[in-house]
Amino acid sequence: MIKLVPFKRSDFKQLINWINSEEFLIQWSGNAFTYPLNEQQLEKYTECANTLAFKIMDEETKAVIGHISLGQIDNLNKSAISCYEKIGFVKEGLLRESKRVGETYWNLWEMSMLEYEWNNK
């Protein structure tokens, strides 16, 4: 089993080390950050009241096995979109060609779930 744990300052270095390309950063964060990721960007991000960022822990080993930030999802990340929809998120709108990656532009989905929808699960 896995467990989502709120993302904190002590997790910054590990995440920065995992983000090894602009493409991976965009896949993980949409438009939230610029490459290369640094502590100043993460500090500003975690101070925002609307931030939904977590580290993913293996409950058995207590190892951090990933990070997730719920927000803009690139339209090619079909598995993430499907996962979010299965737990009740809905697509709010498509941000067309909103993020440039090299010479191409990526579309990003805004997805949401209202508090009462979560509480009714």
Automatic annotation (TrEMBL):
Superkingdom field: Bacteria
Keyword annotations of the record: Transferase
Annotated InterPro entries: Acyl_CoA_acyltransferase (IPR016181)
Coiled coil residues, start to end: none
One GO MF term attached to the UniProt entry: transferase activity
Protein name, as recorded: GNAT family N-acetyltransferase
Species in which this protein is naturally found: Bacillus mycoides
